[in-house]
Amino acid sequence: xxxxxxxxxxxxxxxxxxxxxxxxxxxxxxxxxxxxxxxxxxxxxxxxxxxxxxxxxxxxxxxxxxxxxxxxxxxxxxxxxxxxxxxxxxxxxxxx
Length: 96
What we know:
The protein is mostly beta strands. The protein has one domain (8-95). It is 10% helix and 31% strand.
């Protein structure tokens, strides 16, 4: 629907980076899920054990920010300045 009208469409939902990057015929770069920037050994960025305990016991828990395996994820898109068409798209996933 947006191919040729926008330079890029990069979505996110599951926090698991997809490997479906492509450039559509109209020049729009696409990636279904750019991924999750933050601690990947976590439950949505929080320490795992307190989240499990809350689930199992229904008792309040302190959800501290996790610190293990922090990744920066996303994509770099090169765009032709004159036309606005994407020239390339490359997934990024690096440790911080």
